[in-house]
Structure formats: structure tokens, C-alpha cells
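fyi for ur records
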Amino acid sequence: MATVLADLLNENQVLLDLRATARDEALREIVATMIGADKVRDAEKFLAEVRAREDVQTTYMGKGIAFPHTRTDLVERIMLGIGRSHAGVHFGENGKVAQLIFLIGVPQRMVTDYLVCVGALARLTSGEKMRDALLGVATPKEFVALLREGSLVLK
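which gave:
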């Protein structure tokens, strides 16, 4: 069965007030929400893989959005951790800042599922109205509900 975006959303893996202003520290905060039973097996190694991927080519997509990710053996299923920063996290080149960071861990065997999910996230966050709504919600539960609602529209 193919993975859909709604399957990945977990309010316990959404941080609405990232403290970090630098990429690596923000990634560390988000990864901390992704560890535990049936999640990321080795947080430090996973973080190193994500940073190595970012060092090759930034996943900053513009408009305050970044999709850092890694294909890894450290997860059994696609994992999604989300961080939001109103001040912005320095991400990418030329002083670009990300306000919404969607960190994805992908099992080696699930590339197609990953592409479907990241494509859905990219479409959802491409509109200014949705980005503003995601920046304005007060709780992780509301954040996840907004993404779920938006993903239903994409079907």
C-alpha cells in the first residue's frame, strides 16, 4: 500500500517554536521528535546523513520552505518531522531563511512513496494562503489538521 501524506502526519513530531536560528541546530531539534520505538533508530547518525545531504545541495525551496531529507536504513517507514520558526532559520545560500521545515527520513526501498509525499507537501505549501495559515496556527494539532485538510483537496 502506498504511503500518503496524511499517514505521515503526527502532532508529536511538530515543533511550532523552533529555538534555533541555524540550520544544523534546527535539524537537531526536529530530529529529537522523531526518535523512539518504530521511529529513527540512531538520531546522531540520522542527523549526520541529513546534514551531509544538505551540504551537497540545499533543499531550501524558496518562500520560506525547506524539505531536508535522507534515504537511509535508519527508518523502517517514511518519517516526517516538522519545525516552524517565525524568525526563520538560516537555510541555504545568500542568507535565505526557512520558516517551515519538513524533515523527511526515507527507507531506501520507498523512493516512489517519498516522491509522492514530498510532491504533496510542495503543492500544499506553494500557495501563500496555506503558508500563512501554517504560520498562524496555535497548536501542533491545528497544524496537522490543516495539512490533512489540504491533502484531501489534492486527491
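The longest helix spans residues 111-125. thats all i got for now
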